[in-house]
Structure formats: C-alpha cells, structure tokens
Amino acid sequence: MGFRCGIVGLPNVGKSTLFNALTETQAAQAANYPFCTIEPNVGQVGVPDPRLDKLAAIAGSAKIIPTQLSFVDIAGLVRGASKGEGLGNQFLGNIREVDAVIHVLRCFENDDIQHVDNKVDPIADAETVETELLLSDLESLEKRVPAAQKKAAQGDKESKIIASVLGQALELLREGKPARLTQPKDEDEARVFAQAQLLTAKPVLYVCNVEEEAAAEGNEFSARVFEKAKADGATAVIVSAAIESELVGMEAEERMVFLEEMGLHETGLARIIRAGYDLLHLLTFFTVGPKEARAWTVHQGAKAPEAAGEIHSDMQRGFIRAETIAYEDYIALNGEAGAKEGGKLRQEGKEYVVHDGDVMHFKFNV
Asked: What is the pLDDT of residues 44-60, one digit of tens each?
C-alpha cells in the first residue's frame, strides 16, 4: 500500500531544503529506515517506530524493515494557478495524486532570504495556496452540483447522494472553507465524497519552518499557524529546516547530542513522518521471525484479511485465520513462545479488526 504526501509551499519558505534534508537524512540512516529515490522529486522514507527494534531484538531477526511513506516535492505555485497560471495545471494535477498535503510555511525572519511578498506572514502564505485549491474545487462543483440536483429531482438515487454531500461541500467552499470539513452522513456519501477527488478535501499538515532558536517551542508565527490548523481541521508541527540540514551526515550518537543541545528529543523530520502517518489515519501491524521483523500499514478499521492482503493478495484470497499477539504481550512475555504459553496468542477470524501494534501470522490456503 503506497501512501504519498505532497510537500507544497511558496518560494523561499524552506520547502526544497526540507525535502532534501528529509531524503538525505533517511539515506544516511539506511540501516534502520531505508530511503530510495523513485523518481527525481519523490523520496520514500521509513516511518520511525522503536517498537520494531524491540520486536526484532526478541526474535533475533536478521533484518528490520519499517513501513514507509512517499514524499513528493511538488512544483511551486503562483497566484492564478487555478486558471492555469505558471505551472498551475501541473501543480493542481500533482496535488490531486497525493493522499495528504504537507504545507511548508515560513515562520522565521531573515533579511538575506527574500520573501515572495516582501513580508513574513505564514497565514497569508497558506491562504495563497489554499485559495487556488479552493477556486479549482469551486469551479468543479458549481458545474457538478446543479446537474446532480436536476437528476435528483427526477428521482435518480445516486444523484440524490451526490447532490447532498457535494452540495454541502459547495456551501463550505463558497464560505471560503475547505471541503475536508464536509461531514458525510453514511457510507454512500463517504464513497461519493472520496470519488469527487476534491483538492481541499485532502488532509493537511502545516509545517512551521522556524529559526534554530525556536525549534523546541516555536515562535509567534508558528503559534498563529497552530490556531489556523485547529480552526481548519488540520494538523501542525514545528521544524527548523536549518537544523535538519545540519543533521545530514551525522552519526546517530552525534545527532542525539546535537539535538539535546538544541532542547530537542527527536528530529523534526521524524515528527513530520509520524504526523503524516497519523494524518492519513493509518496503523501499523508487524510480522516477526528470524529472517525479518517488518512493519506493515493498513487503514484504521481494517479487518484481518485486508491486513493479510498487504503482504500478498493470495493471503487475502485464501485467508483462514490470523494468529495474533498484542505488542505489549509479545514484549512482556518475551516473544511468541512465551505469549503462547501465557495464553496471549489469539486465533482471529475474518471479522477481526486489526489493532495498532498487533504481531500477526496469517494462515491461508489457495
């Protein structure tokens, strides 16, 4: 299952610096969190998860393979993108292809780095990008909703669903609010809403790029972004791209000493990766053995056969049961044998909903 987070931002906000640090840092940590370049502007990075190391240590696993996210460095945006200005059509198309948007906002003063609008205002920067996305969605729905309403009036069931949920989204857009605030009332409306592929329906993570001194607690600019995120149903994290760039190439021990000196407990990039994972409502389950300890990704609410399908489609098709141990039980009882002896290895069927941290072994027959 591939999940793609698109990194966007105006010129000179630190977007490219952050993307380069993200990919280069992950490359330097290849032993634990592998990175690979899929295409020039896409980096695939491992999701940091200390649980995986603990499981591998108990099982004596030869390899550790984390679950992964893809980060896409999306081309810059100019005003009028919704009308095709600059790289507008390419920009909007790239946004449509990602699962979540990571919006880098400049939250630092620096006279040596010119701002495109000659002033530092992260809220205005966010609104510049969001306005273009909103205008694109608005144009789309102002054509679709009246057509659906007309068919709905003639008794078409599917059109009634479309008119209801997309009509709600259209009202939000007309009020200048993102479509992600739409609340589908049932599974049919949720399906229609997802199929609409609205740009402002994408979950958003605001990354506040601050000066080094503000990396631990943030600053006045980042505080305003956090307020906006809360109002918009989005998420925000604080990062210093300058610090992340300095970390590139450092050994793990040296990196931790440097972070502690800055008042930090982990890299900003680790926060971004984890926040992106949470943003997409994902959870992790594990498969553990002598050959490898591996983390896998499924959506929250996924059932056991779907989890099996992440490993191989044959496992989902021929699913019989899942031998399951909760992460805490696996650790407390020192592995599979101890968990089995302690009565903590469960046999789960097709209706079992996977929990974050489950250690699973699938039985199947094809």
From this structure: 888 888 999 999 999 99
Strand-pair category, 292-299 with 63-65: parallel
> What does the chain come to in residues?
366
* Distance, CA of 202 to CA of 130 (rounded, Å): 11
Q: Sign of dihedral through CA atoms 59, 60, 63, 66?
A: positive
For residue 245 the two structure tokens come to 């760039």
DSSP E strands in 235-289: the ranges are 235-239, 282-288
C-alpha 214/C-alpha 45 separation (Å) is 26
- 222-243 pLDDT, tens digit each: 999 999 998 887 889 999 988 8
Provide the total of helices (H) and of strands (E) in the chain, helices listed first. 14, 13
Q: Report helix, strand or coil for 313.
A: helix
Q: Is 49 exposed, middle or buried (0-12, 13-18, 19+ CB in 10 A)?
A: buried
Q: Which segments of the chain are extended strands (E)?
A: 4-8, 36-39, 42-46, 63-65, 68-73, 100-106, 204-209, 235-239, 282-288, 292-299, 319-325, 346-348, 359-364
The DSSP annotation for 127-145 comes to HHHHHHHHHHHHHHHHHHH
CA 7/CA 205 separation, integer angstroms:
9
